[in-house]
């Protein structure tokens, strides 16, 4: 286990005197700060990686392996859930042209959180949350609504709506990503977000996204 970085963070406590958190993680950059903040506060948690939205499989594997590497460094249990792509496509059918933060994303979060809640229910966790909300590209209210809906399926479970961005969380997320030289994904995850991000880039005369090439750098001379 490596030391948690020496920064000032608020002391966190699980809400409602809960004891054990299952943290849905979308990727290493988003969960790095969340994981270290939980460790610094002595909160008992495991990582649940369930992201069948991520396309293509090469991108999925890179994001997952980065997250495993970081969890192992910190001695945190990493639960590697299914990559049930067919179910994901079935879930978002008809929503292919929705913009980001629209209805497709609600279905995508619902699916991921429903599985997280089920696993929590079956394995003795009494609280769930997600690293998804730390990203400034995401709508916290949308994520929290999906999380609360999923947790409400089980009487013993709650969704922790903590805002991971506050108290310097957003800045530490970038610091940790650079320190760890994490893989830097350039789109949200699904094939539709890849399509739309590439369209936007091309409209600005930029190159299309190349999977697997961009990493955060610890070198201050590089961005
Ligand atoms: S844009 Fe992101 S959150 Fe929305 S459906 Fe695609 S992967 Fe899921």
Automatic annotation (TrEMBL):
One of its GO terms (molecular function) is epoxyqueuosine reductase activity. Disulfide bonds join 188-190. Keywords: 4Fe-4S, Disulfide bond, Iron, Iron-sulfur, Metal-binding, Oxidoreductase, Queuosine biosynthesis, Redox-active center, tRNA processing. Coiled coil: none annotated. It is an enzyme of class 1 (oxidoreductase). GO terms for biological process: tRNA queuosine(34) biosynthetic process. InterPro entries: QueH (IPR003828). [4Fe-4S] cluster binds at residues 26-27, 105, 108. It catalyses: epoxyqueuosine(34) in tRNA + AH2 = queuosine(34) in tRNA + A + H2O. HAMAP family: QueH. Catalyzes the conversion of epoxyqueuosine (oQ) to queuosine (Q), which is a hypermodified base found in the wobble positions of tRNA(Asp), tRNA(Asn), tRNA(His) and tRNA(Tyr). Belongs to the QueH family. This is Epoxyqueuosine reductase QueH. The gene is queH.
